[in-house]
């Protein structure tokens, strides 16, 4: 039983410096085997030096949301072993886990700092930058000493190519709230001079230092929490949302205690969310967001904060059916290029809501305000995700997505936007994720409706793509529509596609099974077929009898074709049957090269019997057998 017990997974560490390589590996394996994992996690990936080598692994390679304690334990273990491959794997785990999750109570800053130091010792600089970029996004920064060691490492190895990335990452960390003393700036500038970097890069650091000096002298870094709360309430009473945004930015830059900033942030979020309980015009969130962005100097942490508040505000409007206000929130997030589909709400139920649920609500708001493109855009942005290990959702969310996408499809069909309708159909629950618990066979009616609408508009491209998709997913196709497609493709001279679908139609039972006489120079063609279908049946007939037709004894043989009557085609009502005769003659004419039919007789069932002229059949085979053999010899 590999369930996590809460015990420390680490043994007392040995000093590996004096060990031979094979002993180091043995000790590393012993330590890895002490990691206790839930059964759903891949033991090869997490507990071996080599890792998982399966092309497709059914077990998880990323800890589940809520398993932060396990994530930290794994990282500690990898750091303690100090093996380069495991450190790279630690980076992969950290990046993928915190791509979808914000740090919780089990997050250990020391693990973050130790990981960065270990990466530097192993000269894994690219991985260091990967981790630092993630820390900016999740607003959980490393120690200043670690940043200084990164500069020191780049300088000691004289890696000048890394300087642009180093400066860019440094700026991001400062924008995210990292506080440096003036001596830190002086040390960084000294290191940059040692690297002989450009004056422009030196000036970047000097400008940031200047900014810090201004704040130091103007504000003296004093922050009065009680005064800030009073000002927030004043902004609320006066509906001064722009000032509230500026107040938040000032609080973030001046507040030295994270808990105080967290309280203020939640307080502001609560005020903006409760606007849904009022009838006042306008949307306070939009003015607030504009003010924050204007004053934050491209701070990534502020953008994430706005995104998370925006989700909570949007959901609060959705709950009370204030579609227009909800749409304004979404438009503002889009305008500010904040990718909210990868975030969670800040307060209320949205803090625990699944990604599927948040996207469903956003898409529904777009639909309710008449924007099909907006609804599809937000679904695309979320990569049509429903259920995923890091974003679990329940049956209600999946059913909501199912109903939402069906509505989208019907609206696109009414507007004759077939390609967009097809895109939505391909992303119905059950296609992308097999854990979505919905049977995809139920979508047959929707796909057939799309194909029928495409025929009405002569859109063969989308109808062909839809049929391809249905065949690949084993979704039942309306045989009448499939036959129409085959005929339309043939009449448009798209014979390769027509043959492909005819072959599929035969295997699906769309046509009567090929008679046993097929190889005995007798072909029965149902009279209800189109001239295209008749020609394709004749092609199979020719290829099946190719050896006999091409033999020296062929002159004494007869290839017969019987045009079989349908049950409702009585001798008295002969017009439909006569039309079928004309289609058969047309089928022979459109063949390349042409085939020639000779009327022989009428059998006892009053059905026309023809012979296929051997000379024309032989010529057809000589010109076409090379490709026809590959296409039709499939039995």
From TrEMBL:
InterPro entries: TOPAZ1, TOPAZ1_dom, TPR-like_helical_dom_sf
UniProt keyword list: Cytoplasm, Differentiation, Spermatogenesis
Residue runs in coiled coils: none
Localization (cell): Cytoplasm, Cytosol
The organism's place on the tree of life at top rank: Eukaryota
Domain Protein TOPAZ1: 232-406
Chief site of localization: cytoplasm
The keyword DNA repair belongs to this UniProt entry's keyword annotation: no
One GO CC annotation: cytosol
An example Gene Ontology biological process: spermatocyte division
PANTHER family assigned to the protein according to its UniProt record, in alphabetical order: PROTEIN TOPAZ1
Physiological role: Important for normal spermatogenesis and male fertility. Specifically required for progression to the post-meiotic stages of spermatocyte development. Seems to be necessary for normal expression levels of a number of testis-expressed gene transcripts, although its role in this process is unclear.
Protein name: Protein TOPAZ1
Native source species: Calonectris borealis (Cory's shearwater)
């Amino acid at each position: 039983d590999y369930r996590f017990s809460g015990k420390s997974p680490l043994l007392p560490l040995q000093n590996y410096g004096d060990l031979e390589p094979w002993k180091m590996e043995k000790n590393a394996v012993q330590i890895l085997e002490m990691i206790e994992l839930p059964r759903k996690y891949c033991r090869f990936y997490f507990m071996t030096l080599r890792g998982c080598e399966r092309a497709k692994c059914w077990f998880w390679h990323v800890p589940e949301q809520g398993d932060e304690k396990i994530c930290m334990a794994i990282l500690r273990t990898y750091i303690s072993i100090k093996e380069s491959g495991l450190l790279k794997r630690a980076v992969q785990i950290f990046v993928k886990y915190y791509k979808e999750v914000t740090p919780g109570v089990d997050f250990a800053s020391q693990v973050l700092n130790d990981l960065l130091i270990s990466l530097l010792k192993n000269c894994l600089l690219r991985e260091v930058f990967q981790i630092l970029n993630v820390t900016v996004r999740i607003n959980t920064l490393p120690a200043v000493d670690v940043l200084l060691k990164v500069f020191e490492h780049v300088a000691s190895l004289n890696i000048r190519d890394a300087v642009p990335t180093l400066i860019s990452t440094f700026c991001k960390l400062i924008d995210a709230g990292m506080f440096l003393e003036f001596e830190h700036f002086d040390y960084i500038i000294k290191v940059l001079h040692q690297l002989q970097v450009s004056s422009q890069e030196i000036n970047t650091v000097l400008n940031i230092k200047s900014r810090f000096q201004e704040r130091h002298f103007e504000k003296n870094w004093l922050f009065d929490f009680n005064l800030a709360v009073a000002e927030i309430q004043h902004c609320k009473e006066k509906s001064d949302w722009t000032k509230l945004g500026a107040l938040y930015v000032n609080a973030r830059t001046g507040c030295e205690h994270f808990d105080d900033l967290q309280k203020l942030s939640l307080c502001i979020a609560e005020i903006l969310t409760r606007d849904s309980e009022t009838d006042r015009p306008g949307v306070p969130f939009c003015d607030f967001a504009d003010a924050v962005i204007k004053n934050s100097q491209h701070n990534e942490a502020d953008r994430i904060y706005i995104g998370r508040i925006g989700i909570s505000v949007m959901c609060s409007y959705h709950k009370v059916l204030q579609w227009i206000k909800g749409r304004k929130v979404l438009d503002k997030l889009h305008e500010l290029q904040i990718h909210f589909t990868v975030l969670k709400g800040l307060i209320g139920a949205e803090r625990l809501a699944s990604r599927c649920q948040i996207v469903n609500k956003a898409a529904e708001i777009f639909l309710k305000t008449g924007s099909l493109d907006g609804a599809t855009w937000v679904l695309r942005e979320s990569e049509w995700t429903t259920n995923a290990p890091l974003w679990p959702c329940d049956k209600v969310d999946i059913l909501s997505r199912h109903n939402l996408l069906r509505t989208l499809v019907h609206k696109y069909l009414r507007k004759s936007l077939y390609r967009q309708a097809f895109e939505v159909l391909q992303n119905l629950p059950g296609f992308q994720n097999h854990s979505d618990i919905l049977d995809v066979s139920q979508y047959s009616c929707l796909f057939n409706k799309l194909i029928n609408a495409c025929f009405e508009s002569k859109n063969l491209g989308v109808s062909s793509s839809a049929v391809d998709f249905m065949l690949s997913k084993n979704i039942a196709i309306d045989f009448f529509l499939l036959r129409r497609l085959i005929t339309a493709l043939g009449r448009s001279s798209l014979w390769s596609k027509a043959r492909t679908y005819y072959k599929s139609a035969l295997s699906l039972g769309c046509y009567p099974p090929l008679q046993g006489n097929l190889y005995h120079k007798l072909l029965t063609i149902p009279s209800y077929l189109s001239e295209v279908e008749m020609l394709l049946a004749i092609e199979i007939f020719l290829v099946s009898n190719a050896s006999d037709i091409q033999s020296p004894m062929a002159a004494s043989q007869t290839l017969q074709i019987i045009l079989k009557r349908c049950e409702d085609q009585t001798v008295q009502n002969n017009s439909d049957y006569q039309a079928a005769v004309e289609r058969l003659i047309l089928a022979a004419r459109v063949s390349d090269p042409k085939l020639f039919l000779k009327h022989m007789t009428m059998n006892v069932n009053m059905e026309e019997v023809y012979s296929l002229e051997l000379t024309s059949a032989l010529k057809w085979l000589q010109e076409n057998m090379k490709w026809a053999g590959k296409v039709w010899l499939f039995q």
